[in-house]
What we know:
elongated, alpha+beta, four-stranded antiparallel sheet
Amino acid sequence: xxxxxxxxxxxxxxxxxxxxxxxxxxxxxxxxxxxxxxxxxxxxxxxxxxxxxxxxxxxxxxxxxxxxxxxxxxxxxxxxxxxxxxxxxxxxxxxxxxxxxxxxxxxxxxxxxxxxxxxxxxxxxxxxxxxxxxxxxxxxxxxxxx
Length: 146
């Protein structure tokens, strides 16, 4: 036995690790009418702990926050300014298979965007998509089918 084995353990090191939030980008839709609204939303979000950058696009009614933050806390902070806010519901229309589906098309969406809904995405085993590729120029077996 060594000398230190007889001494009581007075000096314990706490192994508590702080859980750091992952770096993420949060996009929020919030209607801002004037410079004052924009300034209030920007100040509320930029004062949060972990925020690295805040981009406000008043024309699209969009606030983009990047940093080590939780999306729900950012949304609550924006709603605390008295503005109606929600998570950004839109995706670029070229990423959606059926951008003019009834649920996806939205007149209020910014130019080039549609709502991200399940009905706008193709089903994985859709027969119309499979039939279209049968007679495609990219299909090397197309001539053998005819």
